[in-house]
Each structure stands twice: as structure tokens, then as C-alpha cells.
Amino acid sequence: MPERDAATEAGSGGLRHVEHAMGTVFSFDVRDTPTPAVTDALRDAVAWLHRVDEVFSTYHPGSQISRLGSGEIRLGDCDPEVAEVMGLCEWAGRVSGGWFSHTPGGSLDPSGIVKGWAIERASDILYRAGARNTCVNGGGDLQLRGEAAPGIPWRIGVAHPLHPGDLTTVVTGRDLAVATSGTAERGAHILDPRTGAPASGALLSVTLVGRHLTDVDAYATAAFAMGDAARSWTASLDGTEAFAVTRDARAWWTAGFPDHGLVPAAAGPGPRQPAV
Amino acid sequence: MRRAVIATTSTVAGVVLLLSLKPHHSAGPALAGSGAGSATLPSQGAGTPAPTSSSTASAPTAGSGSKKSSADSGSFVGSTVQTDYGPVQVEITMSDGKLTGVTALQTPSGAARSQEIAAYAVPRLTQEALGAQSAQIDAVSGASYTSAGYIQSLQSALDKARA
Questions:
Q1: H/E stretch holding B15
Q2: Is Signal one of the keywords UniProt gives this record (chain B) (predicted)?
Q3: What residue of B is the nearest CA neighbor of A189?
Q4: Which listed CATH number (1.20.1740.10, 3.10.520.10, 3.30.1330.30, 1.10.1270.20) goes with A7-258?
């Protein structure tokens, strides 16, 4: 297992860990007392991420997903998780009217669903070991459980797509999933599944908030590819809210978003504080 | 249809917006410890009750020699960073690993360009994020960063500050 920069710190009643995997960085923030079971679970969650990387990496010709894509092996030859992910991809394609695709550039690439799914699963691993208040952040997509401290909800800043280090909104809540899609960090890497070309770029970033990161992350990817159409589509999603920054640097959000996050006051009678 | 046209008019908004250190535009704002006290932002923002201090800042880049003893608490003055809108220099105040204050020591002098930028949605939100009760950010969501991008990310700063 790669040991780059991995660092675990236990302190003041919690446990933090930073792990490089899947070409990005995963930050674990466990607010519960680090019992031996929780510490073990953190190790398991990290091992899980590396295993997912191995199986699903489209960068490694030897990965199961690469070999499945090339026709070298069949679905039945793969780990059961591969079939699970393929099922999720089909579901995401369906609910997004085809805007989510696991063959965005013509070849098999379920990356759009794998990361969110893997993060949610890592969060589950911690939960089953008794860690009830956790934040797992994989490259900017987060699964949150419980709260930051007794009586205090998690507070998640949403990065401003134009101004590194600055925020565009703050999402507050318990048991939330938050995913953002955009081009700020890796350029135009989201493809329009209809054309195979980079998505139109009508949005600089779109952030989805819901309960489960598997869904929320797939929604964010699809919404970003949709561009302007994402506004009505995200409004139609149950239990999920959205906040987007458009190319002309304006923001829009779904009706329920202000219950979770700060929105520009110019749109309402006054500053909106998120409901806790 | 509700459109979020952000008509923030105050210059403060522009200042707040520009508080972000821009590591992309410099060799990295090396933060060095200083004894300066924290200060609050002027609060003539668009109508909220006095937002007090605190904001977001980019990662103190690795290599700033003043970790532990002062990285958890104290004030840090960033080097002056040339941005597209002019020179920016900020001072941040940390308390127990949490960012509790940001003061702009140097900002572009009301250039038309910065006014234009201030019309974004962001300043208002940033300012609210600065409110006393909302000083703490636990983590950051954003477009997927690479391992290299992480180093300059606010999430990285949070991970470091609390490690």
C-alpha cells in the first residue's frame, strides 16, 4: 500500500488522517473518541480506498475496469463491487436523462460514480465501528455523519470557483453529503456525454447537498454537464439541494438550499442563516 | 424565478473578496509569525449587523517555519501577493487551530476592475461566513483537486492546523 504523506493524528478526543489515493487526497476527521475499534476501522477505510483504486482505475491497463472495458474479461469475472458500480452508473444515467454516463468519452469510465460511492462506503466502515461523528472528504466531496461536536452541526465551506482560498457559500448540517463539480482544479475534465467533448462550461461550479454521497456526487457530475438545464433538474430532485455559480459569475440555488447554506442576501429580505 | 443578482455595492465587499491569498500567483505566501493583534473588518457591508473578523485563507505553505507553537494560535502576516487586481496582503489570526480573524493590510485601491469583481455573489457570503457564530469551517467542498492541488487548498490548511 502506498505510504506517501499518509499521516494520522490522534488528539483532543478525535482522530484525523490524510491519505493520498485515486489521484487525490482523502481527509478523515473523526470526532469520536478513538477507540481501538475506530482506529482499526480507519485503517480498514484507508485500505478500502486503495483497493477501489486498484480495481477501478482507468489509468492502469491491468485494473479490472480497464480489462472489462477492453473486453478482456467479463463482468462475472470481476469483484462483486464492479457489478454494483455498473448498476449505480445505469441508475445515474437514468435519473439524469443520460447526462450522467459511464462511457463519457466512448470508453468505460465509471469514475463519476466511484469516488462518491467509495467515500460513502469508507464513512460506513467508520460508522459500523462506532464512529458516529465523522467527516470523510475525498478531493472536495464529503460524507458527513453526526455532528462536529455535541449540539454543533458540521460547517462545510464551498470553494469559490474563481478565487482559490475563498468560499462561495457555507453549508451547515448533520448527516449530510456535499459534492461539488467544477473546472477550477482540473480544468475541463467533465465531458458532455452527447458529444464526448468537454461540457459546455455554462457553470463554473455546482454543489449538491443531500444525504448520501453516492447519489449526490453523481448528481453533481450530471448537473455540471447539463449546464443551464441543471437549474430545473436539480429543483426536481427529492431530498437534494443545489447551489451553482455560473460562467457570468452569478449564483443560483434551489428553493430548499437556504435551509442548508448561506445565500446572497440580495435575493432575499436579509441575511439567511442556515437552519441548524 | 429568483435570480441571484448580487448587487453588493460596498467597497468592503471587494476587500473581503480579495482577502483570499492567491498562492497560484506567487511563490507561496509564506506566513511568518508576528506579534500583531487581530483586527476586525470594517462593517459597512450591505446591511448586516457588524460582521466581526475571521475568514478563510489559503494554506500556510509548508516550510513556514513557525508551526506548532504559533500555528495553533497567534497572528500571521502573509507576504504581499500580486493578483490580477493589484497587491494584496493579509494578516490572519488563529486561535486553537481555528481561523478567527482576517485583516486586509493591503488591497488594490478601488480599481474599476476590483469593483466589477465585487459585484459577484461571493463577497456577501464571505462576509457572512465571517460572522462570529460561523467562524469555524470544518472542511471544504470544491471541484476535485489533484494531490498537487490539495497542497494549496484550504482543506490542506485545515488538516494542518488541526493535526
A1: helix B11-17
A2: yes
A3: B144
A4: 3.10.520.10
